[in-house]
Structure formats: C-alpha cells, structure tokens
C-alpha cells in the first residue's frame, strides 16, 4: 500500500482520514479531505471515492438513515455513517479512522459480507408465519386433511391487536430495526462466539414472539433456545448503546430469557 | 450453554444471593464471639443446621461456577463444546468435594 498521503495538494482546512484498504489482510491508507460544514462521515467517504481514489469500495443507498447499508467502524465504534456528523467524531485534529464492521467477513475496503448477519436472522426465526385463515381451515376440514405444521386455532379475518396490550407494546418497541448490523459489530459475544445469534436477530425474534397474530410463536422460542441463543447474551448493553435508531436489543433479549426460563421450568423446552 | 444450564445457573444464583447475605451476616455476628480456631469450631461442631446450610451453599456454588466456567472456556478458548463441558463439570465436582470436605471437617472433625 502506498505511503503517499492522497489529497495532500488540496487547499483549505483538511481532515486526515485513515481508511482500511483490502480484505482481512489489508492496511490503512491515509487521505486528506476538505472539511465542510455539516459534513457526514459518509460525505467524507464519498469525497474520497469521487475525487481521490475511485477504487475505494463502500456501501450506501438512502443517505437518510433508513436503509441500514452504510454502517462502518468509525474511530473504533460502529456507526451509521450517513447520519454521523464528522464534527461529532473528530476532536482536536485527531484523524478519522474508518474500518469495516467488526465480526463480518471483509469483502474489500469498507464493504463486509452481510450474509452471516442475515443467516442468523433466519436462524432466529424472526419471520412472520400467518395463521391459517378460517376459509383455509374450512377448506381443509372439507378435505379432512391435517394442518401443516403445528395445529393452530384459525385466524379471524382481521386480527385485532389492542394497541395498549403488553405484547403489542413489546413488539412495537422492537420493530423499527433497519438491519444495519451496528449492534452486531458492537457485541463482544458475537466476536467471541461464531454460533451466537446476536442482538439484531434476537431483537427481531422478540418482536415475532410478541406478535399474537403469528402462527408459530413456539418455534421462535425453540429457535432462540438453541446453543448460541438468547441465553448466550451477557447483557453488556453495547448493542443498545450503539443502535442508531434507539432500539434496545438487550431489553428484548432479557424478555426472551424470561420466556425461555418459564418454558424450561414448565418442561416445554429441554 | 444449553437452555437448561442457563436456567440452572439462574436458579442457583437466586439461591446463592440470600445464602451469601446470611453467610456475611453470620460472619459479622460470629466475630463478636472470638475469632480463634477454637471459638469457631466450638460453634460449628455438631451443628447440623450449619452443616446443612453450608452443604447447600457449596453445591449451589459449584453448579453455578461450573456453568460460568464452561461459558468462559467457550468464549475465550478454542476448546470444543464437549471439552469445555467436561472440564467445567470436573471443576464443578472438585469445587463441591472441596466444599463438602470442609463442611465435614468443621462439623465432625
Ligand atoms: S447485551 Fe447481549 S446482544 Fe447486546 S451487546 Fe451485550 S452481549 Fe451482545
Ligand atoms: S437493532 Fe439497531 S443497530 Fe441492530 S441492526 Fe437493528 S437498527 Fe441496526
Ligand atoms: S445510507 Fe441508508 S442508512 Fe445510511
């Protein structure tokens, strides 16, 4: 990797930015980027890619904090870069250090492979499984067939979920995840144990567990009770501390642990 | 850690919390009656209540610690799940034996 600082020739107030280049075995490369008012970290990366080195790989889409694609490690801490102001993370002339998210395979530069993150999401079974409708139950009864999966009471045409019910409020509190994996990068247990489902997947499972319309809630608890499941969390709260949209995965995981404890004591889960 | 071990660790924690407080309270109370080995043994010898209290204490601590040690092995070493579980189990048995031996010694020794 070159030692030459790129962007040195630019005039005006400049910021030193050290950017990870390469995959797992790479090195930092230093750039100098002009300071601008209200500049975000993503603006800085974009400046580098557009004006200093077009080969720099990074990801973003919405630039307004909705898509969750722009997460990186900024000065050692995972952040959504499109909503992180440079002035909030750079103090008294210290360089800005940009690395890919922790605990995910680095594809190149600032781009990680998100597959393990989403695989765990699927492993935690955080997807919605609709209940059988009355219509389908009727048709099945006519055919005299067994229902697929666990037998469920058929859903009414419209599920009514009282907004003030405890389950609804728990699901609401966990639902606004943008899948950015900031919490995943922040969690030490994720870094230590390859099989740990991690905060985002478990937070999603908690929302599914509290969705009374879901037709397979028991499967959620089974999924998060496996080795590497919710019981693996150490309640460090790094996830809640760093989640850019203010979710509290630690709280969700604590809820799953309570549900798991009850299920084990009742003998529903071995 | 399996779900069952997790619950076992929570249950032993719930048991240990009051036991530790009673143990500390007991020490504070006992030191007023003299701290020499003679004084202590005079109180513990033949006391089935104290023996039962500390036998439960030692077993709960052994189970609780062994599960914790297994977790530490899984997170900080490259041991396989099976090896970590075995070493932790041996550690737990050793702790329980040491604890129970001490209980026997101060009660009937
Ligand atoms: S609270 Fe749990 S999930 Fe969140 S960072 Fe800590 S160990 Fe990870
Ligand atoms: S829980 Fe928060 S930090 Fe984690 S993926 Fe969702 S939005 Fe991102
Ligand atoms: S670019 Fe979409 S959240 Fe940052």
Describe the structure.
The complex is a heterodimer of chains A (270) and B (109). Chain A is of the alpha+beta class. Chain A folds into 2 domains: 14-112, Beta-grasp domain (Ubiquitin-like (UB roll)); 115-128 and 166-266, Orthogonal Bundle (Fumarate Reductase Iron-sulfur Protein, Chain B, domain 2), CATH 1.10.1060.10. Chain A is 36% helix and 12% strand. Chain A is built from 11 helices and 7 strands. In chain A, strands 2-1-5-3-4 form a 5-stranded mixed sheet. In chain A, helix 5 (166-174) packs antiparallel against helix 8 and helix 8 crosses helix 11 (249-266). The longest helix of chain A has 18 residues, at 249-266. The N and C termini of chain A lie far apart (53 Å). The model of chain A has no long low-confidence stretch (mean pLDDT 91). Chain B is mostly helical. In chain B, 86% of the residues lie in helices and 0% in strands. Chain B has helices at 3-31, 37-44, 48-76, 81-108. In chain B, helix 1 crosses helix 3 (48-76) and helix 3 runs antiparallel to helix 4. Chain B is elongated, with a radius of gyration of 17 Å. The mean pLDDT of chain B is 93. Chain A binds chain B through residues 189, 192-193, 225-227, 229, 231-232, 257, 260-261, 263-265, 269-270, and chain B through 1-4, 6-7, 10, 74-76, 81. Bound molecules: iron/sulfur cluster (SF4) (2 copies) and FE2/S2 (inorganic) cluster (FES). The site of one iron/sulfur cluster (SF4) has 15 residues of chain A, from helix 6 and helix 8.
What's the layout of helices and strands?
The complex is a heterodimer of chains A (270) and B (109).
Chain A: E1 14-21, E2 27-34, H1 41-52, E3 71-74, E4 77-80, H2 86-89, E5 96-99, E6 106-108, E7 111-112, H3 115-123, H4 134-143, H5 166-174, H6 182-186, H7 188-192, H8 199-209, H9 217-225, H10 238-242, H11 249-266
Parallel strand pairs in A: 1-5
Antiparallel strand pairs in A: 1-2, 3-4, 3-5, 6-7
Helix pairs in contact in A: 3-8, 5-8, 8-9, 8-11
Chain B: H1 3-31, H2 37-44, H3 48-76, H4 81-108
């Amino acid at each position: 990797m070159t030692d030459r600082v790129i962007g040195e020739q630019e005039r005006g107030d400049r910021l030193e930015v050290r950017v990870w280049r390469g995959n797992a075995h790479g090195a930092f490369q230093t750039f100098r980027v002009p300071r601008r008012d209200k500049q975000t970290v993503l603006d800085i990366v974009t400046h580098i890619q557009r004006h200093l080195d077009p080969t720099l790989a990074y990801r973003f889409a919405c630039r307004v904090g909705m898509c969750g694609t722009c997460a990186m490690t900024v000065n050692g801490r995972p952040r959504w870069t499109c909503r992180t102001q440079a002035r909030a993370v750079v103090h008294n002339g210290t360089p800005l250090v940009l690395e890919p998210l922790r605990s995910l395979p680095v594809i190149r530069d600032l781009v990680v492979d998100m597959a393990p993150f989403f695989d765990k999401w699927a492993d935690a079974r955080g997807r919605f499984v609709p209940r059988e409708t009355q219509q389908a139950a009727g048709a099945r009864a006519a055919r005299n067939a067994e229902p697929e999966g666990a037998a469920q009471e058929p859903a009414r045409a419209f599920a009514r979920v009282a907004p003030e019910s405890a389950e609804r409020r728990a699901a609401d509190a966990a639902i606004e995840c943008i899948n950015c994996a900031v919490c995943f990068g922040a969690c030490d247990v994720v870094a230590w144990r390859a099989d740990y489902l991690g905060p985002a997947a478990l937070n999603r499972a908690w929302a599914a567990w509290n969705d009374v319309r879901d037709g397979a809630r028991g499967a959620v608890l089974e999924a998060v009770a496996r080795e590497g499941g919710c019981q693996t969390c150490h309640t460090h709260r790094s996830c809640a501390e760093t989640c850019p949209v203010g979710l509290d995965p630690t709280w969700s995981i604590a809820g799953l642990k309570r549900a798991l404890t009850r299920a084990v004591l009742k003998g529903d889960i071995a | 850690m399996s779900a069952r071990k997790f619950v076992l660790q929570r249950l032993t924690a719930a048991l240990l919390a009051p036991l530790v407080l009673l143990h500390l309270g007991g020490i504070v109370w006992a030191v007023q009656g003299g701290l020499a080995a003679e004084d202590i043994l005079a109180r513990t010898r033949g006391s089935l209540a104290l023996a039962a209290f500390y036998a439960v204490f030692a077993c709960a601590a052994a189970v609780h610690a062994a599960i914790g040690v297994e977790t530490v092995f899984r997170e900080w070493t490259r041991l396989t799940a099976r090896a970590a579980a075995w070493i932790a189990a041996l550690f737990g048995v050793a702790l329980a034996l040491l604890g129970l031996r001490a209980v026997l010694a101060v009660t009937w020794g």
